[in-house]
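Take a look at the protein record below and tell me what you see:
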Amino acid sequence: MPSSPFDPYPPSAFHFRVMFASTAGAVDASFRDVSGISTEVDTESVPEGGENRFVHTLPKGVKHPPLELKRGIASVTSPLVMWCRSVFEGEFIVPIRPQSLMVQLLDELHLPIRIWTFANAYPVKWEIESFGSTKNEVAIEKIVLSYTYSTRMA
């Protein structure tokens, strides 16, 4: 049960905002889908010495899957397109400029309910989804980002 009319439970997954450090929440960061918000403890198996019946599973560290963002194909003047082009077409002459980004899940008043931040993100894949002559859909681009770590702020 919601505790107030402004605290719905469970929250809707369709009302969200993506903000890049370089675009400050501009329209350029409007996405259809965001996926990959996940954190997992990486483990290793260590057999018990002298006892073949036991295998210990020990934590090694935290790993993060890539963050995937989908949107309609943007213009060549888009700051995010220019960032992706600098990474994929720059032939590594210019260093990759990682940037932070934030994903916010919003309520009906456009206020953040949950916030995730991603540090030192940079594109590792830039894909255009398939075209089809029998489909009546918007052309979609997918930007896959690697990042150092994420933090849930709310």
